């Protein structure tokens, strides 16, 4: 049965509902973030907003306080899910490196000295592209086997290359990139407003208590400890989400990402993506979100295996020529061994050479040697004559043999 893309996905992401939702590998942290939002709001609705329902009897504004708190919380949770459950801008991987970028270096030096006889394969690790009239260096990703587009980076947690990579947020359990940065900013800024709203309503309730039966702040706080806890919680959270809202507002106004701001802060390089404050905000909030490059529910197209090259073996034309060929090869091999033995200077070395072999091997060599003599009868006398008169260390040919060769 054919599998779908999300079932054979090589990244570290987690999928739900048949690949319709994609999360990061640390998606469990999303439950912690949801609890940090929902639990304080539930405490607020039960212990604070419930007592404010009838404080504005003229217009029933007390109910609006409760409705706004619930609706705003749902809005924040929806933004959280939109940020963490969608493709942040993952670039699909290649199955092999781009072959058009391969080059061959013929000047490479061999480790043993000199030039390599075979040119070595070279692959550029980076190259330059032009962005807004200025050169920008892009690097090659070994994991995804592609050249990363400008402002793209490889997330080591999700193990993917993400377009306009900002950072990997552990609170939402997902990378923040081109396709979910807008929702991430809305989530952070909305959480900031929710903290301010809950803090203000708790302070208002303390004020109402002080105007009635609890004239001092201490008595009013003792009467409603939930309000005090929520005010402390919102004050601490406000430093976190409020600080993020301000920092990302600055990044948007200068058209930077968190990754670029921290990495290139000390380089003092010009920002080639800055189009002005207004245009930078319009680029983030008023442009259409690009569709995902990945079809996670699509069926995987299995690559057809390339058949191995057929090696044709040369078949012998007939069986009869093969037998003499092997016989001649055996005879030449035995003849070479006999020639080596004949060149020994000492008969003792010959005895050691022949003594190391088994009797069966000596019998076979004798038969093969005799076969060699039968096949080449004309050459044997010459070889025997060539050895006449030879002494140890002398290879002179006798005059009789020279006369025979002349005839």
Automatic annotation (TrEMBL):
Per the record, the domain of life is: Eukaryota
Instruction: Identify the residues that the record assigns to the Palmitoyltransferase DHHC domain, covering every copy.
Output: 138-263
Q: Which GO terms describe its biological process?
A: protein targeting to membrane
Give the membrane topology: Multi-pass membrane protein
Q: Which reaction is this enzyme known to catalyze?
A: L-cysteinyl-[protein] + hexadecanoyl-CoA = S-hexadecanoyl-L-cysteinyl-[protein] + CoA
Segments of skewed composition (Basic and acidic residues): 312-329, 379-388
Task: Using the UniProt record, name the top-level EC class of this enzyme in a single word.
Answer: transferase
* EC code: 2.3.1.225
Gene Ontology CC, one term: endoplasmic reticulum
What family does the database annotate?
Belongs to the DHHC palmitoyltransferase family.
Domain remarks in the Swiss-Prot or TrEMBL record: The DHHC domain is required for palmitoyltransferase activity.
Report what the protein is called.
S-acyltransferase
From what organism does this protein derive?
A: Iris pallida
């Amino acid at each position: 049965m054919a599998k779908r893309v999300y079932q054979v996905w090589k990244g570290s992401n987690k999928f739900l509902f048949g690949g319709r939702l994609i999360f990061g590998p640390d998606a469990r942290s999303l439950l912690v973030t949801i609890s940090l939002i929902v639990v304080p709001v539930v405490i607020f609705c039960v212990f604070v907003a419930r007592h404010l329902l009838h404080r504005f009897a003229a217009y029933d504004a007390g109910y609006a306080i409760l409705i706004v708190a619930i609706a705003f919380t749902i809005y924040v949770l929806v933004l959280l899910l939109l940020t963490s459950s969608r493709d942040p801008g993952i670039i699909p991987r290649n199955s092999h490196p781009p072959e058009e970028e391969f080059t061959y270096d013929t000047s490479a030096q061999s480790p043993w000295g000199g030039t390599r006889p075979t040119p070595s394969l070279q692959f550029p690790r980076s190259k330059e592209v032009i962005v807004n009239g200025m050169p920008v260096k892009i690097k090659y990703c070994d994991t995804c086997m592609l050249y990363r587009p400008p402002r793209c980076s490889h997330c080591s947690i999700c193990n993917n290359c993400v377009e306009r990579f900002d950072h990997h947020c552990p609170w939402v359990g997902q990378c923040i990139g081109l396709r979910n940065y807008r929702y991430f900013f809305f989530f952070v800024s909305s959480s900031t407003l929710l903290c301010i709203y809950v803090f203000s309503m708790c302070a208002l309730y303390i004020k109402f208590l002080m105007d009635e039966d609890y004239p001092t702040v201490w008595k009013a706080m003792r009467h409603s400890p939930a309000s005090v806890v929520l005010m402390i919680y919102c004050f601490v959270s406000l430093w976190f989400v409020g600080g993020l809202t301000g920092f990302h507002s600055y990044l948007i106004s200068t058209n930077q990402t968190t990754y670029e701001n921290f990495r290139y802060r000390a380089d003092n390089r010009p920002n080639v993506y800055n189009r002005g404050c207004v245009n930078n905000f319009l680029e983030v909030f008023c442009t259409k979100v690009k569709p995902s490059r990945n079809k996670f529910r699509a069926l995987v197209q299995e690559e057809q295996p390339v058949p191995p090259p057929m090696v044709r073996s040369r078949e012998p034309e007939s069986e009869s020529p093969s037998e003499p060929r092997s016989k001649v090869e055996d005879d030449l091999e035995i003849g070479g061994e006999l020639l080596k033995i004949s060149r020994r200077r000492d008969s003792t070395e010959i005895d050691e050479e022949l003594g190391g072999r088994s009797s069966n091997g000596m019998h076979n060599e004798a038969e093969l040697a005799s076969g060699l003599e039968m096949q080449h009868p004309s050459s044997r006398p010459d070889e025997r004559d060539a050895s006449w008169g030879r002494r140890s260390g002398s290879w002179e040919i006798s005059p009789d043999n020279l006369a025979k060769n002349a005839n």
